[in-house]
Structure formats: structure tokens, C-alpha cells
Amino acid sequence: MEVIDNTAIPENAPMPAYRPSAFGPVDVGRSRIAKFLDDGSCREWVLSRLHPDGPRCPGCGELIVSYPSLRSFRLGARVRCCCCGKYFTALTGTFLSGCHLSLPQVVLMAILIDAGADDPRIARLMEVSAEGVRGWRLRFRHASGPSHSGQGIEESREAAMGGAVVAGGVSL
Ligand SMILES: [Zn+2]
């Protein structure tokens, strides 16, 4: 029979008070914040922007119609074109080709840049180098021309400031 040693617990010990904890923006910022974003939602949005006319082979332009290929394409897996035999993913040939961030991280990078956070702050939050952040600014800038809705204005504003973030910039 198991004997429970409860001699260390004084009788009539007061119950610990119910004290729900809290958190602030700093605590969130100390977490891996990209994990808070839903991977599926980010993927769906990014792919819809990258391929507004539907998923196609970047080699011959053939529309992807088979269910297995469409599924692989949407999951970011490799697809083989049934016409030209080229292997590709949903990012092949796009401005995100070869990027080392997950799609939630890409979305978060864009959110932080759009919110006006400066490079050191974004670098800390995203756990990348400040140089990496500058690379992403350039990548987004080159990818989004004035023809893209809303982004031309933002890019022009940033360009007018010499590419620098506003002094004392907008805090998150
Ligand atoms: Zn093809």
C-alpha cells in the first residue's frame, strides 16, 4: 500500500489565490511570432497572389488540372508537368523562389515592414539578420510595381524617404 507523505503540508493551509496571469506585446514579441499565423491561410493567400490566373507550369504554361498535382502544388510539394516534364513547385519562377522563410514568416515580414518597424526591430522579432531584412525590403520592392493595388503608393513613399524608415517610426 502506498503511503503518502503529507507531513510537509500544514493542516488548514490556505488555498493558493486564483491569480490569472497576463501578457503584453513585449511577451508576444519574445516568442517565435510567425508560429501564431496559420500556415494554411498564409499559403492560400500567398499562392492566390502569386498565381491569380490559376496554377500553371512555369516551363510551358500548361494549366494544372489533375487533383494530385493540384494538391501537391497547394501544399508546396514538387509537381511534374504532364506536358513538358518539368519539375516545379508553387514558388518556382516567382519572386519567392529560393526563399528560406516559411510562408507565415514571409507574411509576417511583410506585415512588419508595412507597419513601419525598423530593420533591427524586424531582425530581432524574426530572428534574421538586419541584412536579411534589407534583402526582403528589396525583394518586395522589386516584386511589387505600381500596377499592384495599393502597394505603389507605399513604395513611392518609402522611396521618397530614401528607403529609410520614418525617424522615430511607427511602433508596433
Ligand atoms: Zn510544362
UniProtKB/TrEMBL annotation:
Organism superkingdom: Bacteria
Name of this chain's protein: Transposase
